[in-house]
Please model this.
Amino acid sequence: MAINWNKLRPWNGSAEDAFEELCSQLAAAESVPDGSRFFRKGTPDAGVECFWRLPKGDEWGWQAKFFRSSPDKAQWKQIDESVNTALKKHPNLTQYTICLPIDLSDARVGNRESSLEKWGKRVSRWRQAAEKTGMSVSFDYWGQSEIGLRLSDEKHRGRHWFWFNEESLSNSWFIKRVEEQVANAGERYRADLNIELPIGRFFDALGGTPVFCDHLIDKSMDSHCFGLSWVRGRPSAAP
Model:
């Protein structure tokens, strides 16, 4: 899902606070072991916006930075400071997720170090810093893609509407639109009088529907024909 961050609803009059709150709400909806407790922090936050405390005491923390472009030197320093503070203040931390509203660039041009490469090097340093204190911490990244993936989930439909004032094209949205058109058509529409036209097969192909997949299988065509890598809507191994 493409996210227009210019539409992000301000929180406490701030886009930065809004991004932190959005990421915290998404973190609160993550799957965690039964018996876990969620904590949302205020300011100062000791390096984490929020965290889950698992039944055995382990903690999963999140930190959000509303940097709209690849972090510069000063912004990477801010991230480093948050990580170091979190490691110091949360000795039970085992998972730490950093959220930025961008996908890290990786141009691989000449001797220039990309944002993705900088991220990889910092993760190595952070892990070493954690290990020196006897901690084992995994570092994850939520960029625009990861945040968009979560917002596209049906359970976050209302959250997407609240933060961006636009409808998420979820399954329930499509079902509602079809129901509205059927109601508008009234007696003019009768499913039992529907006439199948050959052109309908093209829409099945464009949509990659189960009907089209079944047609391929019935014709004994390999799942990789035409560059396809799926059968009946399920991923398959690469050739």
Observations:
- The first strand starts at residue 37 and ends at 40.
- The chain has a mean pLDDT of 87.
